[in-house]
Amino acid sequence: MQRTWKAGLLLAGGLMFTSLPAMAAPVPSIVGSWRVTFYLEPNHTVGASQCVTFVQNPIQVGEPASGRWFSTTFPGWQGKWIQEADHVRWYGFTGSLATAESTGFTASANLITGEFIHFSAANGVTTSSSGAWSATRVSSCANVRATTLTAPQGGDPSGK
């Protein structure tokens, strides 16, 4: 009788540990204002820093975490964004320059990183700049200034 009790306890203990659900960490939202710094290829030299604000306004059916974004430090640079779990894609235009940024992951509620490519919208194949970027959350873009002189509308917001 004692043997049966010990086997049952081990079996119950094993089931107890394997039946607990995994607790996933909440994924931070990109909504808000961010200071984005670009690192240009080929050697990841520091480019410009711009302030970008992400506003939630679902732009695609079935994608509630999506919306529009705009830059206050680079006039005319704006577009759309979509977030799926910890992956964010944001893309848009400034004049005849098309831009595309994406994250490999959302590091935290206040820091994200990713890759970018900016290219001529006229032919879609001429690359203006590419590289990596990092962004830190700011309370607003009101007091954030670009770290390099910004080009006129239609230039490259990465500082290239």
Please tell me about this protein's structure:
By secondary structure, the protein is mainly β. It has a domain at 32-138: Porin (Beta Barrel). 11% of the residues lie in helices and 46% in strands. The protein is built from 1 helix and 8 strands, in the order H-E-E-E-E-E-E-E-E. It has an 8-stranded antiparallel barrel with strand order 1-2-3-4-5-6-7-8. A hairpin with a 6-residue loop joins strand 3 and strand 4 (78-84). The radius of gyration is 22 Å and the shape is globular. It starts with a helix and ends in a 22-residue tail after the last strand. 26% of the residues are buried. Mean pLDDT is 80; it is low at 1-20.
